[in-house]
Design goal:
single chain; about 270 residues; alpha+beta; 6-stranded antiparallel sheet; 4-stranded antiparallel sheet; 14 strands; about 20% helix
Length: about 270
């Protein structure tokens, strides 16, 4: 009996050491942003109060488990907040203003030298790794896998066009799809996305199908806003269609096994 009590106490101390500091560094008012790295990776995360002019700290996770990760600013290409894009030099003054408006921060407890060395080693070895499915608790995904998850009633979606990067990648649409339940709450769901890009030919006043994508939705694609996928725009997309309007629409269909197909539209998307 004494052995199990000692083992439980040791586990409690280890978990407290691993995750206790996270709860002490929370600060309301810091933004949820979209980070684009120079390597081409991107993700949505919350800004952590540890962020400084030297390093960006981001926060992933759920209300019960959070992961905080540092990224050197020199690795960041841009940050998108509320639809506006900023370089790191442009975003830091804005972040300072947001911090001032949010009030005094609660200073995090300084980490031990051994912990600082461990965090630095982890950041150097894998600064861009994301916790797969970290925004949805694992028990929720288990319920979905067993067919006991909440039912999807509708989907919401929004998208924006990302320009090609310096690495030569094609422009792409960043599409975020949010499954909703009966009370309009966010619910986790897995399935297949079918996305169509429609344009409008002004000369004949008719819509034409320009391209179609198909993507599987996995837990790793979920962010606090929903499931995020990238849809690369093929070269010469508008060439066969003269007099094409500069904006079109995305028709999004989300097929959820055992529940049906849910459809919505994203109007007004630019056509490159």
């Amino acid at each position: 009996m004494r052995f199990w009590l000692i083992l439980a106490a040791l586990l409690g101390l280890m978990l407290g050491w691993a995750f206790g500091q996270e709860g002490e560094s929370a600060q309301p008012g810091l933004p949820l942003v979209e980070v684009e790295l120079k390597s081409g990776r991107h993700f949505t995360a919350a800004i952590d109060p540890r962020t400084s002019p030297r390093r960006l700290w981001i926060r992933f996770g759920t209300t019960t488990l959070r992961v905080v990760r540092p990224i050197d600013w020199q690795c960041v290409d841009r940050i998108v907040w509320r639809g506006a894009s900023y370089t790191p030099a442009e975003f830091l003054p804005l972040l300072a203003k947001l911090r001032k408006d949010a009030g005094p921060a609660v200073e995090p407890k300084p980490a031990s030298p051994a912990r600082q060395q461990t965090e630095s080693a982890r950041a150097a070895s894998a600064p861009e790794q994301l916790p797969p499915g970290g925004f949805v608790p694992m028990n929720a995904w288990a319920a979905v896998g067993l067919g006991h998850g909440p039912a999807v009633q509708r989907i919401d979606a929004h998208a924006r066009l990302l320009p090609g990067l310096r690495t030569g990648r094609r422009p792409r649409y960043r599409l975020v799809v949010a499954p909703r339940g009966g009370a309009m709450q966010d619910v986790p769901a897995l399935g297949t996305l079918s996305v169509e890009l429609w344009g409008h030919r002004r000369s004949i006043d008719r819509e034409v199908l320009l391209h179609r994508w198909t993507r599987n939705v996995t837990p790793a694609q979920y962010t606090p806003l929903g499931a995020a996928v990238d849809l690369e725009v093929p070269a010469g997309l508008a060439d066969p269609w003269p007099n094409l309007a500069g904006q079109g629409k995305l028709v999004v269909r989300f097929s959820v096994a055992g529940q049906g197909v849910f459809e919505t539209e994203v109007p007004g998307v630019p056509i490159p």
